[in-house]
Design goal:
alpha/beta, six-stranded parallel β-sheet, two-stranded antiparallel ribbon, 13 helices, 49% helix
């Protein structure tokens, strides 16, 4: 298996202006830019542009895109994911140009526009303009923290699956992913956050690369992601008018799942509190109320999370309602 990791990663103010140079270095001459209506203003390039919603509403026919030798995604999660998906369908390289930093999809080989998520090729280049990203809604940048702290429980879950189920495990990917999260948590807790955007983007890019190296979402997705997916299912099931973000849900999930790990490993004592404080510092939600869910929904999500996918985690065969309620109460989520 050939692992694709970015050949170019540029994270700086004004980075978007270097797209032309990156294309030249990669010997790519005719890109198609995929973006959204709100992010088209950043696409001041002499290249063809299409909106991601148009791509998603049609059947992709390779012959319609034969003239393009790469896809460039400019925007948030939907634009980046759609660009990745189109590049995968066409068999051409993808270049990621995020305009916000709410999750590690900006660098990972995972596409989440369809359920379940699936693996494609990782971006060949990432051009993250921190000048643009700093101007994105603060809530999105807070959600990015939630996606990064989840690496902590994801790696703990992965190691648990290795010990209890003999699952394939990569120590190097695990250490890389865990270190990225720990460094960002320590930075957030011990600084004035003046460099937060830059540090967050670097962490999200690193997290995406860890997934590409492992060829699995395991380094960055565990029980906390199962909890988030369970919340999404319940939103649909009960037609809930809740606009919580993926990273926000993962952050709250990480508080609870790290607490479960703490109860089994004394060396982890205080981990959930540290994670909770780091989320609070960047104004990310840490309670059901802040997420916008009734307490009963949080409890139900905890009881069904283990069924979301065939992935062994600290949830093992699941929590009953009483155990779920106790967990949410003891961590202050409800």
């Amino acid at each position: 298996m050939i692992i694709t990791t970015p050949r170019f990663t540029i994270i700086e103010d004004g980075a978007i202006n270097k797209l032309k140079d990156v294309l030249k270095k990669l010997n790519l001459k005719n890109p198609l830019v995929i973006t959204g209506k709100h992010t088209k203003k950043y696409c001041k390039f002499p290249y063809d542009i299409e909106y991601y919603d148009k791509i998603l509403s049609q059947t992709i026919k390779k012959q319609d895109y034969i003239q393009y030798d790469c896809i460039v995604g400019v925007g948030g999660g939907r634009a980046i994911d759609t660009g990745k998906y189109l590049a995968y369908k066409l068999g051409v390289p993808f270049i990621s140009v995020p305009t916000t930093a709410s999750n590690d999809g900006i660098a990972s080989p995972i596409v989440s526009i369809k359920k379940p998520s699936f693996m494609v090729e990782a971006p060949i280049a990432i051009i993250a303009d921190t000048e643009i990203i700093k101007k994105s809604p603060k809530r999105l940048l807070s959600a990015g923290m939630g996606d990064i702290v989840s690496n902590i429980t994801a790696v703990l879950d992965w190691k648990l699956a290795y010990k209890e189920k003999g699952e394939r495990y990569s120590e190097s990917s695990a250490i890389f992913s865990k270190t990225i999260a720990k460094e960002l948590i320590n930075y957030v807790l011990n600084s004035d956050l003046s460099e937060y955007t830059n540090k967050l983007v670097k962490a999200l890019v690193g997290s995406g690369i860890a997934i590409a190296i492992a060829n699995s979402s395991r380094p960055a997705s565990g029980s906390e992601h199962l909890f988030s997916h369970a919340l999404d299912m319940l939103k649909e099931k009960y037609n809930l008018n809740v606009n919580s973000l993926h990273g926000e849900q993962c952050g709250v999930g990480t508080i609870m799942m790290s607490y479960l790990h703490e109860k089994e490993n004394k060396k982890l004592s205080g981990l959930s509190t540290k994670i909770k404080e780091s989320l609070k510092k960047v104004n990310a939600p840490t309670t059901s109320k802040e997420l916008g869910f009734d307490e009963d929904i949080i409890i139900e999500a905890l009881t069904i999370a283990h069924k979301i996918r065939n992935r062994w985690t600290i949830l093992r065969d699941g929590l009953n309602r009483e155990e779920a309620k106790k967990l949410a109460e003891e961590t202050g989520v409800i």
